[in-house]
Amino acid sequence: MVRLTEDAAVVVPCQGAPVLRSRTNIAIATGLVALALPVAATAAPKRITRTVTGGPVAATATSVGSSFDGTGAGVQLKISRNGTTLFDGAPKGAGCIYEGKSSCTLLGWDEGSDALVVRDLDGNGEPEVIVDQYTGGAHCCVDTTIFNLKPDGSGYLQSPKEFRDEGYRLISRPGGTGEGAVPIFESGDIRFIDLYTSHAASSAPTQLWRWTGQAGWIDVTTSYLDDVRADQRQQRKLLDRITRRSIYEARGVAAAWAADGYRLGQRTAVLRILRRLADRGRLASGFSQRRSAAAKRSQGRAFVQGLDRRLKRWGYLPRP
């Protein structure tokens, strides 16, 4: 998913901003970006309580403090079914536990955000509960937990997943045989962030996830190649702009565009274009811009070779 735009701003979640389920584009800054440091809190930590219902299920989440100023004191969740409380505690979230305590808050943080959702995700008629937590940090992180009813109805199971700074967007896509539209979590492959360039100049190929009660989280990207093609077109447009202007490091976007192409079976064509960019000196690292043209070509070629190995190792080539 494209994370870069031409706007001269770095977009990060801010207190009171409903950022949930909209894959925020992080822009390449064309000038100096000033980050305001939070002022020490003098009032009591803010407390937000939200209740969402769906069918027989009611979920209430309470978020205390802010992940921005260090006052975040975790999220407490209560789930009841037909009036009987079946869960009362803190959602799991690997990025939310620090020194044995939860420091996360509800993502979005305002009264109108959808950090708490009750929805049937697997089509069995029983609603699940989705809780999105924010860990804090300049560009991080979304922790999502899905609660589903145990087979014996005695409580709820938890399925946590870290979407990190990519976040996700909940969309609908056609399901398998005999299914109608199913909910899909549209995100990006977080392994690409900060891999080849700075965070602001990084991008990630699209990645689609489906949650089912029996199998949990499943990567279903290869089942929706039209979404991959759409992301590849966006990545290519941005790559063309960056390489044409020669003012930004192109490696992050080039890697994401290449990954989409490999997924679509275009390895040969992708390598041809990447090698051409490398020979023009467009795929050298940002620290080598003052080096000779030959050095830039060599560094770019090495990048392409390493990227090719990595994409094959990560399973981006279609299976025979």
TrEMBL record:
Tell me what this protein is called: VCBS repeat-containing protein
